[in-house]
Task: structure prediction
Amino acid sequence: MVVTPPCAACGTPSVRVELVAPGQVPAEWDQWPGTVQASILRRRPPGQWYLLFKGVAAYNGYGDPIDASRAGRIAQAFRPPLHFAQIHTARFYDDAGFCQDCDAPYCYRHWHVTESGYGYCPHGHTKSLDPRW
Result:
């Protein structure tokens, strides 16, 4: 499952969320270095889900293993139609780019992200978008 909610201001993807089922590989697998592929295949136990997330201001690189419960919660949260309250249940730090007050997603450009990872949506609503700050 790959989800890329369109920015409410310009239509470009606000974020990219990919859930990789056990036994499957990510959509862009063929573009990854062989060393990364080998490392993931070596350490990924059978039955393990995998999450790749490119948020508004942060991402998890080549992904992270997650348990089936979290995978189910994320899959449920991203079932259309997408709304803030539903997306919020996935527990992503940046709520997958969704502004709570607008009930709409915005991309990096339209969140007007500061150096500290704090963002302002086109309507002036604010939120922290980078968990490292």
The first strand starts at residue 2 and ends at 3.
